[in-house]
Amino acid sequence: MKRISFLLIALTLSISACKNEKKDTKNTDTEVIETEKFVVKPEATSVKWTAYKTTDKVGVGGEFTTANFDIKSGASPQEALNNLKFAIPVSSLFTNDATNTRDAKIKMAFFGAMLNTDLIKGNLSYVDSTCIASLTMNGVTHDLPLEVSIADERRVTLTGVMNLKNWNALEALESLNKACFDLHKGADGVSKTWEDVAIEISTYLRKN
Prior knowledge:
By secondary structure, the chain is an alpha+beta fold. The protein has helices at about 1-35, 75-80, 100-110, 170-180, and strands spanning about 40, 45-55, 60-65, 70-75, 85-90, 95, 120-125, 130-135, 140-150, 155-165, 195-205, 205. A nine-stranded antiparallel β-sheet has the order 5-7-8-9-10-11-2-3-6. A hairpin with a 2-residue loop joins strand 7 (about 120-125) and strand 8 (about 130-135). Helix 3 runs antiparallel to helix 4 (about 170-180).
């Protein structure tokens, strides 16, 4: 009888230990999920732009090859992007121009005609599925609404259109048009440089 009682006690303790072990395993799995983060990395980020010339509005593409910001993380892509501060050196502008003259003209005639434009600075805010870049250029800070596309929870694309008059940059635009007067003529002989610039920011979020 005592032997049967001992076996029952041992069996009860064994079952209890198994339950506790399973519970601990679940808690561990939950902790791993809760601590997983999405990380924004500068080296995985590109900043491209398209400006326009001639009355036919022919696109001229370029990019900034450097975007500086602190490595930031969040529990979701939206959280990782929210309150992300950035600074883009104007010197990193690149258009892949075969003549190797366009970049210098843009830097000198356009950005050189502005105030404090060694860096274009900004801050991203991501609230309620809406992303806005508070962008500082030419001594002016103005909001730039951005459309957001997130694929596979990690590939993020932000697109928007800057109107240069919002940054008091129309005089700088006129300076650029003078420097590129003949190059910005279309079939009608009219030289034109448009005040809207399309922006595309792409980044790939790493998971920790």
